[in-house]
Amino acid sequence: MARQERAIRTRRAILEAASVLFNEVGYEATTIGALLERIDLTRGGLYFHFTTKEQLARAVLDEAVTLEGVRPQAFKLQEWVDIALLLAHRVPREPLLRASIRLSVDPLSRALFGTRWPDWVAVGESLLVEAQEKGELLPHVDPAETARLLVGAWTGVQLVTEVLPGRTLSEEISSLFALILPNVASSGVLARLDTSPYRAERLLKEARSQAD
Amino acid sequence: MARQERAIRTRRAILEAASVLFNEVGYEATTIGALLERIDLTRGGLYFHFTTKEQLARAVLDEAVTLEGVRPQAFKLQEWVDIALLLAHRVPREPLLRASIRLSVDPLSRALFGTRWPDWVAVGESLLVEAQEKGELLPHVDPAETARLLVGAWTGVQLVTEVLPGRTLSEEISSLFALILPNVASSGVLARLDTSPYRAERLLKEARSQAD
């Protein structure tokens, strides 16, 4: 394995171990010492990549706005849906993404690092503006407002689904779209959108098999 | 002032001071010592009401499921809307309600005390079942699912609105209903629902002037 590739893998392993800690004990209680107990690295090896907890948190947040698995679709609205479905599939499976939510929700770390919610709103708004230009939206829809509400609703549904038993996040986000899309998509488009809770897994497999 | 009434007011003042602390520094960093610095009470005076931080957090959560200002309406759906609008008006103004959200969102305190989300889902579901029996809902609506999604969406919109500038929580929750109600309310009912961001202030004034 080339030196650079090894460094990338090590960096990723560090970020994932730090994410598990952030998720388990929170930002405040996470320490570099506890991180070193969980990874197969010396302090010097770690410091080659990160020297402070702050750097780790910022790096986790930098990886949070991910479009992995999203591909061009006939409808821009479908891409907007896909982003939310993909995250719903990945967040329960990827500690790093969960950590980025936790860092955003925790007022202490939020005060230090901000959140990625404005970035997500911008991604959604830009897709909805394109959808509007292509005539996919009902006339009254405000792309900025709808993008903002979806980021909020997605975030809260994720939190509440962690607590309430019986439904996966993918199922809940799929239901969320069934609730709001009839008031967003023009009728010709609505019938052709796929909001299945199983869609994300398929998209991700396709993307990852192409990457291999 | 009667002795009992004074005790009730003191208890309330303690809970509000504790809520301000929970909001500012979080549950973990809150101490009885810091609380005593903020209230005009001796340690003995405090211990008459609460002896531990855990008791304070539980009492804050016990006050979180509040229906103040909600009154019987011609449509049960309007009462469901009113609960959400009233909370949207009150949460930015009442530290105790904000603290209950913070305690629910923080994984450490959540692990100790649980959340009130299941209670809110039960309140909403029961209203939506009544609305369904009265023919106020579109045929496909599932009261349990819709109640759950609204609690999630409300919670996340509150979190994200704290971060994004320019819109009040009342405005955002009003927009959230404008987004989802057309797919929930039967058409005759939809046109007669009031989702104005100013509705809650009026309801609350009426309720409080009657209470005086």
TrEMBL record, chains A, B:
- What InterPro entries is this protein classified in? ArpA-like, DNA-bd_HTH_TetR-type_CS, Homeodomain-like_sf, HTH_TetR, Tet_transcr_reg_TetR-rel_C_sf
Task: Give the matching Gene3D superfamilies.
Answer: Tetracycline Repressor, domain 2 (1.10.357.10)
**What keywords are assigned to this protein?**
DNA-binding, Transcription, Transcription regulation
| SUPFAM superfamilies to which the protein is assigned, alphabetical | Homeodomain-like, Tetracyclin repressor-like, C-terminal domain
Q: Which residues bind DNA?
A: 31-50
Output the Gene Ontology terms for molecular function: DNA binding
Q: Which Pfam families match?
A: TetR_N
* Signal peptide span: none
Asked whether the UniProt record includes Transcription regulation among its keywords, one would answer yes
- Occurrences of domain HTH tetR-type (ranges): 8-68
Q: What is this protein called?
A: TetR/AcrR family transcriptional regulator
Annotated organism of origin: Streptomyces cyaneochromogenes
